[in-house]
Input
Amino acid sequence: MASAFFEIDGSTMEGGGQILRNAISLASLCNTPISINKIRHGRTQTGLRNQHRVGLQLAATISSSTLVGAKNGSTSIEYTPGSINLPGEFQADSVTAGAVTLLLQVALPLLLFSNQLPNETAPSTLTLLGGTNATHAPQIDHSQHILLPFMEKHLGLREGSIILDINKRGYFPKVAGGSGIVLWAELEGGGYIGGSAVGRKGVNPEAVGKEAANELIKGLDNGGCVDEWLQDQIILYMALAQGTSEVNCGRGELELHTRTAIWLSEQMTEAKFEIEKDSAGNNVIRCKGIGYTANSAQRTEG
Output
């Protein structure tokens, strides 16, 4: 007898937390029960860690879903989506200095859609505790000054509909100390390229600034209209969008996170992606989206 859950191998491609975040978001929106196995299989410490567990629990709360197996160290979970009924007030604490932007990644798609009509919906509030400027993740300033403005220009997000306030910063390894820097350039046509670095013990702040500047210059020289952090974050929204979307990712090899997001979106939705080289050698991602709306998936009552 076939499983009632859509099964996902969490060790595929990037094989880390990104598969968890995107899969849970898409499952919640498309009302698809999923099971994820071999979670973070290729990492030194396999299975869920605090920030992954907290992100799953946050999504389950927003979408009134049933989550089984979400404990630290677990390598498999089951997730049965419920109903996203907004507005609401939600809070998540990564406990450590785990990046709050990764919690935002799993929650934001859910908060953008509701079973209610827009004129009936008051704002929702999401309070996230953890690292604002961490390594191996986009810094919160990237979300504030690059991701959200890009979504407003190109993905139909109403200008000013999301207000991101940073009340207090948290840094790795301790939430109370450290530093971070994010630089960005807005391109003609509305592209955004960023460069970032996180301060570290024993590293001169000037060197940290140069590191961010060099990353920005490298991104600009690459010839695309999105940077490495923005690349993979917009794939899910391209899959959900109406019609055909395309984005120039530059001449460099596509990020593994980006290719993983494309693979997962095609597994879980009817979206179709193509990757082509243009005449200048740039990688262009083209997607025929599913035209998702809040009422396009039949939901169960949570």
